[in-house]
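Thread amino acids onto this structure.
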C-alpha cells in the first residue's frame, strides 16, 4: 500500500503510523494512505519561508511566470495519469475530471501569460501618486510588495487539482512559497501533481511543499506574516478563524466556503431563456455529481413557468446515465465518499420535510454499478411553492446532485429570494430583456461574488454558471466565506503587502518606474 509522503524541507518525509485510507468511492478499494503524524511543521515552515521565499523573490514577476509555464508543460504531459487517478479516487467521469485537471492547467497558463507582462521591478504600483502638499511638493504612492511569509492552502476534496493550482498560480507569481494541504479523501491527485513538478526540478527548493493528512501544529507553527487560504465548509472555516494565530496574531485568512447559489429565469421568460436555464441546471446537478461550490442549489422562476420548468427538468434528468465512471456510457459518476453519500441522503430527508420532490432519480434512474456499497446518488429536484416560509431551502447546502425549484411573484421577489442565500458565490440570470439583466446585476452584486447574465446572444459562447474562470472574481460575501480569489491580477493582492510611501514626487517615480 502506498503511503503518500509529505514534501517538506526539500525532502520526502513519511508520516508515522498506518495513516488514514484514501478510497475508491465506487469499489471501496484502498488506493493509498495519508499520514502527517510526527512532522515538524515549524521546521518545515521556516525552510519554506527562508529557502523558498527568498529564492522566489530574487526572481522578477516575468521569471516567475516562466516557472508557471514550465509547470503547465509537466502537468500537460501527465494528463492521462491524472484522469486515471480522478476516476478511481473521485469517482468522476472523464468530462467531469476535466473541470478539475484541465481547469487547474488552464488557470496556471492564464497566470503565466498575465505574469509575463508584469513589471521587472520587485513591487507593483497600486494606483498613482496623490498630492499631500501644495504644488505637489510632497505626495503619497501606494505600493504592493510580495509577502515574506508562506501561503498555507487548506483545500476541499472536490477540486484536488484546480483547488491547488488556482491558488498556487497567484502565490508563486507573487513570489510567495506554498504549503499545500489537500483534503485527505482526494489527496492522491494533488500529491501526484506536486511530485511530478518537484521531480521536474522547476521551482526553487522550498517553493512548493505538500502535507497530506492533518499534521499537529499546522496553524500553531505559523508566523503572523504568513497567509492561509482555506476552501471547505463554513463550519471548518469558523473553527479555523478562532485559532489564536488568525484571531489574535493577524495571520491573513481567506475563506471560500459553501454557498446556496441561484439560477433565475427572467419575468419575460420566453422558451429560449427557459431552455437555457433548464440545460444549465441539468449540467450543474450532474457535473461532479453536484459537488461544486458554485453549483446551482436554488432555481427561481416566474409563477407561470413553475410547472413547465419542473416538467422540463424531469424530462432531461431521466435520460442521464448514472453509475460507475468506468463504464463508457455513464454521464454522471459518484460522490467522493460513502460518508458524503450519507450526508447528502440526510440533507435530502431534511429538504423532504419542507418541500415536494419533483424529480427523484433514486426511483427513476437505474444506477449502473456492480459494487453494492458505492457512493453514487442520482439527481433529486425539490420544489416549494411557498419559498418565503421555508428558510432551510435558502440556508442548507446539500453538497451533491440536489436543487430546489421555487416560483416568484415579481422581480423584487425573485431578487429577494436570491439574497436569502446570505451571501453566495454566483447567481445566473436567463432573460432576453437587457433592462432586467442590468437591474438584476446591480441588485445581486452586493450579495454575490459573480453574476452570470445569459441571453440568446451569448448562449453559445458563455462559460457556464458553475465554471470558475481566472479572469473573474471567485468568492462571495457572508456565508460564502467573504473571500476573494482570481479575478486576474486582483488575486495577487492577497499575496502582497500594501504600503503607502510618502516622499517627493521624483523619489516616488524612481521607486515605481
Ligand atoms: P471541510 O470538511 O471543511 O474540509 C476542508 C479542508 O479543511 C480539508 O483539507 C480538511 O482536511 C481541512 N480541515 C477540516 N477540519 C480541519 C481542522 N479542524 N483543522 C485543520 N484543517 C481542517 O470541507 P470538504 O468537505 O473538504 O469540502 C466541501 C465543502 O467545501 C463544501 O461545503 C463546499 O461548498 C466547499 N467548497 C467551497 C469552494 C469555494 O471556492 N467556495 C470550493 C470547493 C468546495 P481533511 O480532509 O484532512 O479532513
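Threaded sequence (513 positions):
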Amino acid at each position: 500500500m502506498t503511503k503518500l509522503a509529505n514534501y517538506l524541507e526539500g525532502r520526502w518525509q513519511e508520516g508515522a503510523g498506518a495513516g488514514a485510507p484514501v478510497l475508491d468511492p465506487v469499489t471501496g478499494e484502498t488506493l493509498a494512505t495519508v499520514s502527517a503524524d510526527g512532522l515538524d511543521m515549524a521546521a518545515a515552515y521556516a525552510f519554506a519561508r527562508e529557502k523558498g521565499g527568498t529564492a522566489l523573490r530574487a526572481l522578477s514577476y516575468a521569471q516567475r511566470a516562466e516557472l508557471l509555464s514550465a509547470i503547465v508543460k509537466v502537468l500537460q504531459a501527465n494528463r492521462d495519469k491524472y484522469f486515471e487517478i480522478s476516476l478511481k479516487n473521485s469517482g468522476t467521469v472523464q468530462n467531469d475530471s476535466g473541470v478539475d485537471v484541465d481547469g487547474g492547467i488552464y488557470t496556471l497558463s492564464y497566470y503565466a501569460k498575465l505574469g509575463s507582462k508584469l513589471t521587472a521591478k520587485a513591487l507593483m504600483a497600486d494606483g498613482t501618486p496623490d498630492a499631500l502638499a501644495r504644488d505637489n511638493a510632497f505626495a503619497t504612492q501606494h505600493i504592493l510588495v510580495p509577502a515574506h511569509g508562506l501561503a498555507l492552502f487548506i483545500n476541499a476534496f472536490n477540486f484536488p487539482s484546480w483547488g491547488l493550482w488556482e491558488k498556487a498560480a497567484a502565490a508563486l507569481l507573487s513570489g510567495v512559497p506554498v504549503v499545500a494541504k489537500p483534503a485527505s479523501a482526494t489527496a492522491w491527485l494533488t500529491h501526484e501533481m506536486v511530485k511530478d513538478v518537484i521531480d521536474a526540478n522547476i521551482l526553487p527548493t522550498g517553493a512548493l511543499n505538500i502535507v497530506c493528512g492533518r499534521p499537529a501544529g499546522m496553524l500553531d507553527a505559523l508566523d503572523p506574516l504568513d497567509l492561509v487560504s482555506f476552501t471547505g465548509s463554513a463550519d471548518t472555516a469558523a473553527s479555523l478563524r478562532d485559532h489564536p494565530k488568525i484571531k489574535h496574531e493577524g495571520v491573513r485568512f481567506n475563506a471560500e466556503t459553501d454557498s446556496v447559489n441561484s439560477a433565475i429565469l427572467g419575468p419575460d421568460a420566453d422558451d429560449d431563456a427557459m431552455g437555457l436555464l433548464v440545460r444549465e441546471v441539468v449540467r450543474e446537478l450532474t457535473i461532479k455529481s453536484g459537488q461544486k461550490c458554485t453549483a446551482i442549489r436554488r432555481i427561481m422562476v416566474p409563477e407561470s413557468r413553475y410547472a413547465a420548468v419542473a416538467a422540463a427538468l424531469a424530462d432531461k434528468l431521466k435520460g442521464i446515465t448514472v453509475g460507475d465512471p468506468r463504464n463508457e456510457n455513464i454521464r454522471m459518476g459518484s460522490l467522493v465518499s460513502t460518508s458524503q453519500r450519507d450526508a447528502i441522503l440526510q440533507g435530502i430527508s431534511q429538504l423532504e420535510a419542507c418541500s415536494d420532490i419533483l424529480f427523484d432519480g433514486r426511483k427513476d434512474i437505474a444506477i449502473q454499478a456492480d459494487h453494492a456499497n458505492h457512493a453514487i446518488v442520482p439527481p433529486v429536484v425539490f420544489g416549494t411553492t411557498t419559498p418565503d416560509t421555508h428558510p432551510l431551502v435558502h440556508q442548507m447546502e446539500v453538497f451533491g446532485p440536489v436543487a430546489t425549484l421555487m416560483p416568484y411573484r415579481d422581480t423584487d421577489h425573485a431578487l429577494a429570494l436570491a439574497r436569502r442565500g446570505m451571501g453566495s458565490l454566483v447567481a445566473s440570470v436567463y432573460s432576453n430583456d437587457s433592462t432586467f439583466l442590468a437591474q438584476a446585476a446591480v441588485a445581486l452584486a452586493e450579495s454575490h461574488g459573480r453574476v452570470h447574465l445569459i441571453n440568446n446572444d451569448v448562449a453559445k459562447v458563455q462559460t457556464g454558471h458553475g465554471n470558475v474562470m481566472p479572469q473573474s472574481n471567485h468568492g462571495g460575501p457572508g456565508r460564502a466565506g467573504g473571500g476573494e480569489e482570481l479575478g486576474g491580477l486582483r488575486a495577487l493582492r492577497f499575496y502582497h503587502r500594501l504600503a503607502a510611501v510618502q516622499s517627493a514626487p521624483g523619489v516616488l517615480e524612481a521607486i515605481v518606474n
